[in-house]
Write a structure and sequence with these properties.
The chain has twelve helices and five strands. It is α+β, with helices and mostly antiparallel strands. The protein folds into two domains: 67 residues, no CATH class; 171 residues, 3-Layer(aba) Sandwich (Glutaredoxin), CATH 3.40.30. A five-stranded mixed β-sheet has the order 1-3-2-4-5, sandwiched between helices.
Length: 246
């Protein structure tokens, strides 16, 4: 079997009919075909690179479609759950949802860039999903933030959120009490609220939503109908927003 015949069969491997064509070969023809393909690929390794590129592109396209469907399926929980903090412009034309953990280094890295994006764009609605996945200190921080939102409202939550995103020490009840006092909040009321059923229900709902959205790491962003897994630079986030507006 010459390369003239091997290549069409190699290309046919991408179609369902390929298995039938290979089955029609004799053992000797199949061995010759394999040897011919191997020799061709060794002489032309760029073909493998091209094929891998095509495969990755197809997988990315399939993932994008899957992510868009997940967002559509759980849009109400993502964008309008009535328990998550909403910052930026609540009436903005673009909504960004962030699943975050206060102990996550990449979340901390993304924090000033998201703040810059919101400050520079008055039409972004920003929703925070407390998603503690990095241990007990993460859970404690999220409980404190959610309790602050319930006890003292949006402005107090934002102050706590911003401070926790920049906080580098151990997170424990003593440090959270000091934080509340520094921010002139009712530390006693917030600490008491932290272990309430309401706080537990909110964090559990976020975890359940994250699992349904197949979110395994932080930060994860939902930008309208796009799911962005992991940290992205400010310029890339600006590009997402600009493309959505187009």
């Amino acid at each position: 079997m010459t390369l003239r015949y091997a290549l069409p069969i190699m290309l046919a491997l991408t179609s369902p009919a390929s298995a039938v064509e290979l089955d029609s070969l004799t053992d000797a023809e199949r061995a010759a075909f394999r040897a011919e393909v191997r020799a061709y690929l060794l002489e032309n390794p760029e073909v493998l690179q091209e094929a891998i590129g095509v495969l990755q592109q197809r997988e990315q396209q399939a993932q994008t479609v899957s992510d868009s469907q997940l967002i559509a399926d759980y849009s109400e929980e993502l964008f309008n759950d009535r328990h998550s903090f909403v910052g930026g412009n609540p009436a903005g034309d673009i909504t960004i949802v962030e699943f975050l953990d206060y102990r996550c280094g990449y979340c901390k890295r993304a924090f000033p860039e998201i703040e810059s994006l919101i400050a520079a764009d008055a039409n972004i609605r920003f929703v925070v999903k407390e998603y503690p996945i990095l241990g007990e200190q993460s859970v404690l921080a999220s409980r404190f933030a959610v309790a602050t939102l319930l006890v003292a409202g949006d402005d107090a939550y934002k102050a706590v959120h911003d401070t926790l995103m920049e906080f580098r020490g151990d997170i424990n009840q003593a440090s959270m009490t000091r934080l509340a006092e520094v921010l002139n909040l009712d530390a006693t009321a917030i600490i008491e609220q932290m272990d309430s059923d309401e706080v537990t229900a909110i964090i559990s709902a976020n975890r359940e939503l994250g699992q349904k959205m197949q979110i395994s790491g932080t930060p994860t962003f939902v930008v309208e109908d796009q799911l962005v897994r992991g940290y992205v630079p400010l310029d890339v986030m600006k590009q997402f927003v600009a493309e959505l507006r187009e």
